[in-house]
Amino acid sequence: MLGDESSSLLNKSFHDLTSDSTIEDFCIGTGHTIFEATLLPAILSAQYEIVLATCFWAPGPTLESLNLALKQLSTRVIASSSQRKIKVNICLSSRSLFQKLFHTASKHGYTYPPDSWKSKLGLPSPEKIPGLQLTIKSLFFRPFSVLHSKYLIIDRRDVWLPSCNVSWEEWYECCVHLRGQVVNHVFAFWLDVWSSPDEAFDTVPQTSSTSDIPLQATYPEPHSSHKTSFTTSPIIPTTLLPHPHNASIRHSLWFLPPRLTPPPQTPLNTTLLHLFNHAQKSITILTPNFTSPPVYIALLTAISRGVNIHLITNRRMMILEQLLTSGSITERWLWRLKRAYKGLLLPRQQQSPSNEASALESARPGIGSLRIDIFSPPTGTSGAASAQVTREDLEAGLVGQAAAAAATTKVHIKLTMIDDEIVVLGSGNMDRASWYTSQELGVMLRGGDVVRRMWSDVQAGLEGCLERYV
């Protein structure tokens, strides 16, 4: 049975969660560079309210930059002699193993007292940010129900959906900036999950666009990031795909037979399965891990009816987490997928074991192709790649995408593209945790030109960083 979080959104129909929204920009890079290029300037532009939700929270450059931004924002408020503080809500789920083991089971979570902000979270103490009304809360449901969604809402007017956390991780990430009715849907999702009955939320006046508000402090565009701004702000059909956490022990026990544990029927799960089942030409997936049985079955089914599959993932990423939540690891599932694909090809091609490589290169009539790439950036580039790039090169758009991936160690982007026309972004991985137990939030964007432009940015960053598996 599904948890009761985001129940009001889940009661909405698929049509109710779809609206025409505008895409403002799309950014790729590391978590730190995305924060400095996109998210922190947005925070500094806030006039009334900030909502920042993240899964993992850990010390590192990103947290240091966020700390500085909150102080600068407070200074701006005080300097303006405003009688109104800016409300800042920070929401997190995973901080340490100890925190998760002893976390309260209350659905209202744990609110951090002000005297712990600095010592436990690395944030400014209250006297350092007098212009802000800061609330920090955590939610986690044992044994495995982490709140994995990540988003930033500014003044209930703009929303950013990054793939990255507030952490030290140097991974290849992305972030999409949207405006329109989808912002109200994300805010409603946040209220359903994070608000308490005794909390009151005032209406927020309609402000000018954040892009029209001068920033009091700016961050240089990092060399290891690349941002595509959609100057015409294309209007595209946008569907929010909430996925509540599932604390059911039935879904938490990975060793139960798959037929006994179908995935929860959430908007994110059902939409992805629908897209897989109705893809006509191609399915492209970027995912940190690949351990979801429903996805494995759906991809094989799609291949058998002629759809071409391209899967990009990692080796040796979060091994312990994979074992705890799925009882297996990505490498095992990739081997199974390769073996099953070979089985689809061999009956007609009559390939012998010695000809396995040629069998996998071309599918028999009616069978789609399978390509699996492992993210493997050149050795020695991580962290320092951007130092060799000049400002002029970046502004000319010559190296931003390539440097963005070369400065990372793993791919953490969660992207599913169908027929080059539809893309699903957000926090959900193609692993068992995201499909069964974790809370996730995705968004489906429909529009060939926009989708292909976003994929072009991601693909350019992947150049030279992929190792062919199949």
From TrEMBL:
InterPro entries associated with the record: PLD-like_dom (IPR025202), PLipase_D/transphosphatidylase (IPR001736)
Signal peptide stretch: none
CDD domains xrefs: PLDc_SF
Short name of one Pfam family: PLDc_2
PROSITE patterns: PLD
Domain PLD phosphodiesterase: start-end pairs: 143-170, 407-434
GO MF assignments: phosphatidyltransferase activity
Any GO BP: cardiolipin biosynthetic process
PANTHER family: CARDIOLIPIN SYNTHASE (PTHR21248), PLD PHOSPHODIESTERASE DOMAIN-CONTAINING PROTEIN (PTHR21248:SF11)
Record's protein name: PLD phosphodiesterase domain-containing protein
Source lineage: Eukaryota, Fungi, Dikarya, Ascomycota, Pezizomycotina
